[in-house]
Amino acid sequence: MDAGYQHHQMFAKRVCGVLILTTLLSLTPSVSRTETTSPFQEGVEYVKLRLYPQAVDTFKSIVSQHPTNVDALFQLANVYKLQDELELAIQTFNKILAIAGSKNAEITERLYGLTHLALSEIYCKQSKLDIAEQHAKEAVQSRPAEADTHYRLGYIYTHQANFDEALAAFKRTLTRNPDFSEVYEWLGLIALMRNEPQQAVTHYQTAIEKKPYVQSAYYNLAKAYRLLGDMPAARKQLKLFHQMKTYYDQTYAVESALIEAPMNTTLRLKLAEIHLEHKHISAAVATYQALIRLHPNLTVGYDKLGRLYMNLNMPQHAIPFFQKVLKLDPDAVEAHLRLGWLYTQSKAFDKAESHLQAAIEKMPKLSLAYHGLAEIYTQQGQLQKAIEVYQHITKIKPDDDDARKALHELERLKRSQTTR
Predict the structure, then answer these.
(1) Under a CB-based contact definition with an 8 Å cutoff, are residues 89 and 77 in contact?
(2) 415, exposed or middle or buried, with CB in 10 Å at 0-12, 13-18, 19+?
(3) Which of 170, 250, 174 is nearest to 215 (CA)?
């Protein structure tokens, strides 16, 4: 197969852990009452935070006490898979299937199907496509409504160059989940292999629209445009490909370092900043949320999330994070300032004034807080109080031109009101 396929392979290998994590966590079987105890939930939380050694220890402890606990076995196998310990993952998933085949086994159809799906993914990774296909078919039979099971079959058929079967499987996938972006990438690749560049363009454009941070889609879209003879469009997509590749290389480097030092605050802050530089907001939010879960008493995580939501003009999301900052650090003047601004925006003037006064109490010459107070009084029509605040600002900061201009405007406005 050609370079486009090779780029897909590179992409698949390098993001395999991330895709497996997000997919299997979203497909994690419902936890029964016996699994709602803290050790199981603690293990799940470790997985979410990619603290895999801790997760392994937690689930192994559960399994040692309850060897037929299929939910704990599934999570343990999933962690092995995320760590690329594939043989251990296979052994553990096969234990679930053995339990399922025993009499009086308590295992849901969903968990049974997900186990076959996970085994299919592993065998795909090992290029054992015949075995992977059999597990994928079992997964489809058990979970026909799950888009992921049909996608896995489509993936396998594509790698076997069985394109008609692949297209049928991908069609079933999209029927169940029209936003499955990876499907559109494979549809684009099949179109390229069939020398249908215009169809490939359509598929890759859809893939990028649904998930814009995957570098391989841009590379292959550029190839499709070259085949169509549209070189300006091809060059544009190649430029975007290089940008996405740079972004991916940066995040991959930091995430690799985090595997060795998962508690490293500096690395997580750096990762979030990289996401923000490339406007990948959801990834930045997730990174800050992980930081908060790992370090619940660290104010910087809450402050960063609050600022991010402020920039997104989502005050109701921002406010709780700055409140948490103040709970952890009552002397955080900037948090008072930001809450004062946020409450002013939402017309909660009493709360806004309270936070601005608190900031002034801690820093009596903080002109920003006085500007905030003057704004509150102006919006409430209390012109004299606003004038007095601006007068005070000009005394503590004589070079504040904004305060001086606002003062002159308010004095003019008040004079015009009194002469009516």
Answers:
(1) yes
(2) exposed
(3) 250
Amino acid type, 418: T
- Between the alpha carbon of residue 322 and those of residues 107, 290, 307, 310, 341, the distances in Å are 45, 17, 9, 10, 12
Assess contact for 393 and 403: CB atoms under 8 A.
Answer: yes
Pair of tokens at residue 109: 């159809």
Mapped onto helix, strand or coil, the DSSP state of residue 270 is helix
Count the helices and strands in the chain (H runs, E runs). 23, 0
H-run or E-run covering 164? helix 163-176
Q: Which two tokens stand for residue 241?
A: 């490909």
Per-residue pLDDT tens digits for 88-138: 999 999 999 999 887 666 788 899 999 999 999 999 999 999 999 999 999
Q: Measuring CA to CA, which residue among 346, 352, 404, 355 is closest to residue 377?
A: 352
How do residues 329-352 score in pLDDT, each as one tens digit?
999 999 999 999 999 999 999 999
Please tell me the distance from the alpha carbon of residue 17 to that of residue 149, in angstroms, as a whole number: 18
Hunting for tokens 């801790």 — which residue is that? 54
Nearest to 153 by CA among 123, 194, 188: 123
CA angle at residue 112 from 127 to 40, to 5 degrees?
A: 100
Q: CA-to-CA distance for 222 and 217, rounded, in angstroms?
A: 9
pLDDT at 19 > cutoff 70: no
Tokens of 58: 């937690």
Question: How far apart are the C-alpha atoms of 120 and 114, rounded to whole Å?
Answer: 10
**DSSP 8-state class, residue 87:** H
| Residue 357: exposure state from Cβ atoms within 10 A (0-12, 13-18, ≥19) | middle
Burial (CB count <10 Å: 0-12, 13-18, 19+), residue 359: buried
